[in-house]
Automatic annotation (TrEMBL):
Domain N-end rule aminoacyl transferase C-terminal: 105-225
EC supergroup of this enzyme: transferase
Organism field: Shewanella atlantica
Cross-referenced SUPFAM superfamilies: Acyl-CoA N-acyltransferases (Nat)
Transmembrane segments: none
Gene designation per UniProt: bpt
Name of the protein: Aspartate/glutamate leucyltransferase
Pfam families hit by this protein: ATE_C (PF04377), ATE_N (PF04376)
Keyword Cytoplasm: yes
Entry's EC annotation: 2.3.2.29
């Protein structure tokens, strides 16, 4: 595979049990490169790839195509009534951007995984696992922090690219679940994309069959990557 002047090598993993649909097997296309430029990575995002740490991958499952790459056109997005309520109900919170990891980030992540995702592949949380999916060596994310007075209650790990933002992962204080902080962090990223004049926010994969991964269609209008390219839903 070649992009402009940079050829890249792509491998494919063996099949393994899917983390999201129990009856399916998962298989991934994986880029085997030590250094990827931001413009090239953004091209790969537009082709449906994602990153975890320094690994860039795309589902290529033998009998399933449930993982649908999804992105939000930032300048077209308008919060729904429910999302406006989420914003209103969290006006007492403060958010800010930092460009380095903090010990409090990992502590919050550990609590989040061990309380909310005991049935998932990331349980139990570990520092090695946390560093592995954030650190890449060729791209430093930003960390959007949510604060309730002097308490850190949410973090969104986000990549900034030339024309887009890519949401890597968000985690929050489990005891603050009534605030809909997962939704709030996405809404903040939508706002940030507009402020930074970025065209898209990449949210990863929408998986309709997975209860934990089928929420991304709530942010409209959105675009889904199909065999015919990116298709936009009508505004709801």
């Amino acid at each position: 595979m070649s992009f402009k002047s940079q050829p890249i090598s792509v491998g494919i993993t063996k099949t393994f049990p899917c983390s999201y649909i129990e009856t399916e097997l998962e298989q991934l296309l994986v880029l085997q490169e030590d250094n990827i430029g931001l413009a090239l990575f953004e091209q790969l995002l537009a082709l449906g790839f994602r990153r975890s740490g320094g690994t860039i991958y795309k589902p290529q499952c033998p009998h399933c195509n449930a993982c649908l790459p999804i992105r939000i056109p930032s300048f077209l997005f308008t919060p729904s009534r429910r999302q406006k309520r989420t914003l209103k109900n969290n006006q007492d919170l403060i958010w800010k951007i930092v460009d380095t990891q903090a010990e409090s980030h990992y502590e919050l992540y550990e609590t989040y995984i061990n309380v909310r995702h005991k049935d998932g592949p990331m349980y139990p949380a570990s520092r090695e696992q946390y560093n592995h999916f954030i650190d890449s060596g060729w791209l430093d994310p930003i960390f959007i922090e949510l604060w309730n007075k002097d308490r850190l209650i949410g973090v969104a790990v986000t990549d900034i690219l030339p024309n887009s933002l890519s949401a890597i992962y968000s985690f929050f204080a489990p005891d603050e679940h009534k605030r809909s902080l997962g939704s709030l962090l996405i809404l903040i990223q939508c706002r940030l994309a507009k402020l930074m004049h970025k065209e898209f926010i990449y949210l990863g994969y929408q998986i309709d069959e997975s209860r934990k991964m089928n929420y991304k269609r709530d942010y409209t209008p959105y675009q889904i990557l199909t065999s015919s390219g990116w298709q936009q839903t009508p505004e709801e």
